[in-house]
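Hi, here's the filled form for the chain we discussed.

Project: internal
Contact: R.S.
Residues: 178
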Amino acid sequence: MDPLVTIIISVCMSLLFGVAAMHKLGAPAVFRAAMENYQLVPIAMLNLFSAILVLLELSSSVLVLIPMTQAAGLLAMAVLLLIYTTGISINLYRGRRDIDCGCSGPATRQVLSFWLVARNLVFLGLVVVALEPSTNRALNWLDLVTAAFGVLVAGGLYLGFNQLLAQAPRLTALRDGA
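And the returned structure, exactly as it came back:
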């Protein structure tokens, strides 16, 4: 695997998990309420479980940027993605589609959907790709520019896709009401 691919994926995932953790730290009651709506963790354990998830998100976003701890950060991200995807899938199976996923913070309510499951599985695939051993080729200035643009393009695609997911229920209501 080319190290440039690993760098782009690692930085993108670091930003994703870091921003998600900051949203949750900025509005802990909103995140706790979202976790409670999933009805998967006993109420008595909810504060601890929520804190562990945020701590894992924050620590993995840092670990993935340090070459010596990159694999540990990627593995933590894979575990979190599996937890989140399982929670969403269980609630979709239960028919509970109208609850907030809790992934975008208080600013954007995003209901559960199979698109969220697909998105998380894509992220999981990227994490697995980044876990592949990289070649030891030396990086030059052009690689760094390419990495920066790769992160910007991936970030833009994520933000656009995430907005489409968040707005999908409103668009459906508009279409059905017209």
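Let me know if anything looks off before we file it.
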